[in-house]
Amino acid sequence: MSFYWNIFGPLNLGLDLAMVASFFLLVRINRGLQSGKGWWAILRQAALGAIFLWTMAGLYVGGIVGVALIARCFWTLFTVALPLLLAFFAVRRARYLLFAPALLLVGFKYYGEVLEPGWVEVERAVITVEGLKAPLKVAHISDLQTDGLRPMHLAVLSAVNGYSPDFIFFTGDILNHAAIQPQIKEYLGGFKSRRGSFFVGGNVDGLLNLPEFFAGTGFALLDDSYRKVRHEAGAVGIVGLGLDSFADRPLLKKLLSAMGKADITLLLSHVPDAYPNAVELGVDAVFSGHTHGGQVCLPWFGPVLTMSGVPRKIAAGGIHLVKETYVIVSRGLGLEGHVAPRVRLFCRPNLLLLEIRPKK
Fold first, then answer.
1. Based on the domain organization, do 94 and 127 belong to the same domain?
2. Residue 158 structural domain
3. How far apart are CA 330 and CA 319, in angstroms?
4. Do 3 and 110 form a contact (C-beta atoms < 8 A)?
């Protein structure tokens, strides 16, 4: 019951049918037990019962998959079960105006599952760093985390190559299912940079043999390692932390020491929680992803869930100056996989085209 069919489609369709069926079964049971009560009281109890049932299932499963299962329950009840119910009442009681909110909810579902996930924001920004001799250009992508390529991905490829960046930084989470490896590997091979493209692993990248996957793509795996690259701007030091090392201050200090002095030092880490150590150790900029900007945001509130320990303002994405270190968090390009609803709300996919200029 999703507008976006993918390799997990059969599993998720089965879950959606089970969730909708549990709701209508509880409606029927409550109606039989409480025939004297009004319809809205019965429906409210059925909805709460279904939410309780699937929340318990999510807690039993645990982890991110459990959270995703609970999120799917709310999304399915709101955008599938409720429109069906409104349509039923519209026909059964000849209240045809009820078709209006039903169609509105279906339209909202279409927006969240199709329109916004494909509506990439190409953000152009400038920051300044002391010690540089000339500007340098960086394209930052993160959390591609896709079930397959769509027009949005081709637009991102075109925008990055059109920018002609000195460096491309990809801060983890490539795909949601190993079956699409060949397609995504070919896609990544299309990105071009002047001085180097670098990748650090994310949560879902355990699906892959990363050195084998990136062979021939032009991306260098930088987990727990570093590169020093000569550029007109000076010596550019790039350090990468693997997923299990983001909070390892001694390792970061060791890598910085081994790399030696650079005119600018940049850190790549999938999770933004690496930034406090980077600030302490004098890194000029940290590039991260992971949070998807929340993926679902509420007006005047922001991200519903970030799965990160950093302040919500930072987890929501964007460029933040913490003391003398820029903390740059991408909202990512993709969507949470497995049983999670493939939806973005008020949190568009994000590509950053960044120019780093000398500070005057």
1. no
2. 121-358
3. 9
4. yes
